[in-house]
């Protein structure tokens, strides 16, 4: 079973993601603030990570930079979910190494399909 690490401090978003990911057959690990994400990733070795852009402690952008500079984490695909739909933010996230950026609200079905594409080629 593939593991997905969620880093989001919004309890409603976490429940939505967790429900849909588990229904899609994934194991889910959760961090509710940015400072513990890298340590959690080293512990659970996720196959994919989903970051909220605005997190307490470290932003989703900072987490992307952390992951991409860590040999053990750099190949993990990263999806960022954000309420900021600005093109410059999206571009900055993709340039930093995000695989995909979803602007809230988004379709859980489209998210699951994108995860499947990233994990299964």
Low-confidence stretches: none
Q: Could you tell me the CATH topology label.
A: Rossmann fold
How much of the sequence lies in strands comes to 15-25%
Largest sheet: 5 strands, parallel
**CATH superfamily heading:** Response regulator
- Overall CATH class: Alpha Beta
Radius of gyration: 13 Å
The number of domains is 1
What strand line-up does the widest sheet have?
A: 2-1-3-4-5
Helical segment count:
5
Order of helices and strands: EHEHEHEHEH
Instruction: Report how far the terminal alpha carbons are from each other.
Output: 16 Å
Please tally the β strands and state the result.
5
Q: Architecture, CATH level 2?
A: 3-Layer(aba) Sandwich
Q: Which class do the helix and strand fractions yield?
A: alpha/beta
Domain Response regulatory: 3-119
GO biological process, one term: phosphorelay signal transduction system
Pfam families: Response_reg
Modified residues (4-aspartylphosphate): 52
Describe the fold and architecture.
This is Response regulator. InterPro entries: Bact_response_regulator (IPR050595), CheY-like_superfamily (IPR011006), Sig_transdc_resp-reg_receiver (IPR001789). It comes from Ruficoccus amylovorans. Residues 3-119 form the Response regulatory domain. Keywords: Phosphoprotein. With 121 residues, the protein is an alpha/beta fold. It has a single domain (3-120), classed as Rossmann fold (3-Layer(aba) Sandwich), CATH 3.40.50. It has five helices and five strands, in the order E-H-E-H-E-H-E-H-E-H. The protein has helices at residues 11-23, 37-44, 60-68, 87-96, 108-120, and strands spanning 3-7, 27-31, 48-52, 78-82, 100-103. Strands 2-1-3-4-5 form a five-stranded parallel beta sheet, sandwiched between helices. It is globular and about 30 Å long.
């Amino acid at each position: 079973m593939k593991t997905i690490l969620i880093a989001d401090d919004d309890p409603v978003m976490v429940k939505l993601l967790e429900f849909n990911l588990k229904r899609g057959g994934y194991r889910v690990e959760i961090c509710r603030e940015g400072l513990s994400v890298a340590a959690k990733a080293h512990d659970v070795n996720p196959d994919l990570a989903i970051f909220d852009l605005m997190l307490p402690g470290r932003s989703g952008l900072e987490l992307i930079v952390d992951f991409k500079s860590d040999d053990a984490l750099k190949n993990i695909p990263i999806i960022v979910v954000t309420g900021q739909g600005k093109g410059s933010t999206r571009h900055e996230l993709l340039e930093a190494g995000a695989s995909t950026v979803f602007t809230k609200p988004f379709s859980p079905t489209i998210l699951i399909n994108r995860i499947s594409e990233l994990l299964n080629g």
